[in-house]
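Hi all, a correction to my earlier message: I attached the wrong file for RNA polymerase subunit sigma-70. Here's the right sequence:
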Amino acid sequence: MSVPEIIRRAIEIGERNGKITFDELNQLCDSRVLDPKDIERVLNALSEAGVWIEGD
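and the right structure:
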């Protein structure tokens, strides 16, 4: 799954549940290894969308 697709799906989950967990993020990334810039893009997009990231 591409980074934009990960972002889109993570925001959908976050909006539906009011939050997203790190486990859910890891599941979206599947076995893909993200570089630090990609991780920052995902986290920034979630923050801008008002999605809370919850630790497990």
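Sorry for the mix-up. The first strand starts at residue 19 and ends at 21.
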